[in-house]
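Our consortium's second objective concerns turning raw sequence data into structural hypotheses that experimental partners can test. To show how far this objective has progressed, the report includes one record in full. It was chosen at random from the queue rather than selected for favorable results. The single chain below, 217 residues long, was entered without modification.
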Amino acid sequence: MAKTVEFVSQMEDLSTEKGYQFTFHCDKCHRGYTSSYHATPLGIAADLLGTAGGVFESFGSIFGKGKEAAKGVQEALGGKTHSDAYAEAVEEVKPQFKHCSRCGHWVCVDACWNVNAGLCDECAPNVKEELVFKQTHLTVEQLGQRLSEQDLTKGMDLTTPAQVVTCAKCGADIAAGAKFCSGCGEPVRSVKGAFCSECGARLSGGKFCPSCGKPVQ
């Protein structure tokens, strides 16, 4: 009976009929670590017999059945061989992981292990990293609060109904103060009553331009 190997909860079996290889993922960040590839003697034998069977196929059935025979032997012994290869791969990759005694997870040493606490950084977060995170988060939050206390509408006309003025020729929106349409180059004064024909300032409905004083025609 194969021995149970306790390790990470997520594993990818990359093995083929020619050899064994596995990728093990951190239980926290899911970063993967791949074991070395190990070709199996049975896989090599299957390739050799398969090649021989193809070369000598016309000389008799014994060579033609060589590949099938090797496949049958490999399937018969593949279970134990696979289990042994898996156990070896675990031992090879295990130094890249640590087992957290508090939560039971296997986490990668590179990113998810708190060396000073001897626990994963989910159970024992890095104090300095948490301080930087909290400081940055609260700075952004306080920035929003302070900004909300400022009057950002000072000097803006909030009582006059807003309107979108478009060019009479091409229909493009005309920005306040523009003297020519940015879409077709048509002079802004062609839009009657929208802007001052003298300075191009937006008119608010009065008899004179609020910018230069020219009478509105």
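The partners drew two points from this record. The helical segments are 41-55, 61-64, 66-93, 109-112, 127-148. DSSP finds five helices and nine strands in the chain. Both points have been shared with the crystallography group to help prioritize constructs.
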